[in-house]
Amino acid sequence: MRQFDAVKLGQVSFKPDTGDGGLVRKSYKLELLTPLLGGDTESWVPNLDRPIRVPAIKGQLRFWWRSMQDLADHEPLLKREGAVWGANGKASPVSLGIVYDSKPEIRTIGKSDRGILECPEYPKYVLFPLQGQEENSFDIVHACAFTLKVICKSDVWPEVEKALKLWVLFGGVGGRTRRGAGSLVCPELTAGLETPEQIAEFVKSCCEGQVLDFGTARWPRLAGARLAIAQAGGGDSCSAWKHFLDEYGSFRQGPGVGRGRGQGPRPGRSYWPEPDALRRITNQSATNHDPEHPAGNWFPRAAYGMPVQTEFRNAGGDPRGKYMLQPEGKERWPSPVVLKVARTMKDGPLFKCALVLNAAIPSHLEVMVDRNRLRKLTDNEMPMATEGKSMPQMPAFASDRNPYSALIRHLHLEEML
After folding, report:
1. 3-state DSSP: the chain helix, strand, coil percent, rounded to 5?
2. pLDDT digits (tens, 9 = 90+) for 176-203
3. Is the confidence at residue 294, as pLDDT, over 60?
């Protein structure tokens, strides 16, 4: 079936689902729950009139559909994926279209005289990729309402419907969706998923009968994944998202949580072991910054996605350059951790969610400095090599050194899976 665009869709007669002719026709009204970043062909630059693209939605649906599959090898997976979503020379039995219900609301954020993003409404940690861009201002799609129209063959509809629900619950549109940007709300799609328990039961139904140990999947899977949810506090969805992701930002590098409080504008010493590990590896350290972390050479933050960048800013003595931890031969490994706020009912409560997809961390990691390889990590330095590791200054690691368990504990979420 041909994929149609929003303009043509507005000119055709769209019949409701009648259950005959072998086709399912559905129409869903969706709204942004959190602001959309980028989303068009140019990075971080949205289309101000039509910020949501059909190919991007179909890419998200492919991802969530793939997370449900129980196929051991890539070839049968790709064959089945092509049969549902299309492949080279093979049309998809699923067609999507968008009609905008109102003009998108655009807000512009700028930089201060010091080049720092000024964005009190949004979590700075999520907007971090914009900080390094040359532009002095960025347009953000703050609100947008649209109708998604779906036509597909009835034999694939059950799995397409599940993918749509997963997309609304845990995915989104635009950039930084795994950190909650571009989240969506669609009460019709999420009807009956009104409590954390019901959401967890739905996720289980998407991988029913599959048995897979956590951290072993060759691609991100729901089977063996971890899901933790809690009701968000008061306020609107954007402020709840900001508060939730600010908590994550503090976990990574916040004063008094991820690092010492420091003095004045000077940041305190990191509570994470990676900086001291690099000091040991390079045999370089600034005065009063001898490596002292009790965990030794350990790189746990890689579990949250790579690359992990370390750049020392102390005056003299510490290693120079930009240190990047990444998979061997690759620049990145997408985070298996999805953090977002969700709403499943109109005017219903907001939930803050952490879905840790089952995805094996690459087995070979390397440290690069200024694009040159420094060395590979040993087995004992890998993110999940927790035996004998100690993180006394980070209470979240007190009773469980697993990086994912520590994150869930820090975010005050209740584990459902």
Report:
1. 25, 25, 50
2. 999 999 999 999 999 999 999 999 999 9
3. yes
Q: Please name the amino acid found at residue 336.
A: P
Q: What is the pLDDT of residues 17-69, one digit of tens each?
A: 444 569 999 999 999 999 999 998 888 899 999 999 999 999 999 999 999 99
User: How do the domains of the chain map onto residue ranges?
Assistant: 6-191, 237-415
Q: What is the secondary structure of 137-150 as a DSSP string?
A: EEEEEEE-EEEEEE
Token readout for 233 is 């506090």
Report pLDDT digits (tens) over 91-132.
Answer: 999 999 999 999 999 999 999 888 888 889 999 989 988 887
Per-residue model confidence (pLDDT) at position 10: 34
What's the rounded Cα separation, in Å, for the pair 215 and 221?
10
Give the pLDDT score at 18.
45
Distance of CA 206 to the CA centre of its chain: 19
Q: Give the DSSP per-residue string, 247-263.
A: HHHHHHH-BTTTB---B
Q: Return mean pLDDT, the chain.
A: 91
Are the CB atoms for 291 and 307 separated by under 8 Å? no
Distances (CA, A) of 307 to 86, 303, 325: 31, 10, 5
Q: Quote the tokens at residue 305.
A: 């996605």
**pTM (predicted TM-score):** 0.93
Residues 6+ apart with CB under 8 A from 150: 24, 25, 26, 27, 28, 94, 95, 96, 160, 164
- Phi and psi for 224 in degrees, rounded to 5? 80, 5
**Measured CA distances, 259 to 102, 254, 268, 299, 388 (Å):** 44, 6, 6, 15, 21
For residue 69, what are the CA distances in angstroms to 127, 162, 235? 32, 12, 37
- Cα distance between residue 130 and residue 215, in whole Å: 31
Give the per-residue pLDDT at 54.
96
Query: Tokens standing for 314?
Result: 């102390």
What is the C-alpha separation between 268 and 253, in angstroms, rounded? 10
**Residue 37 has what DSSP assignment?**
B
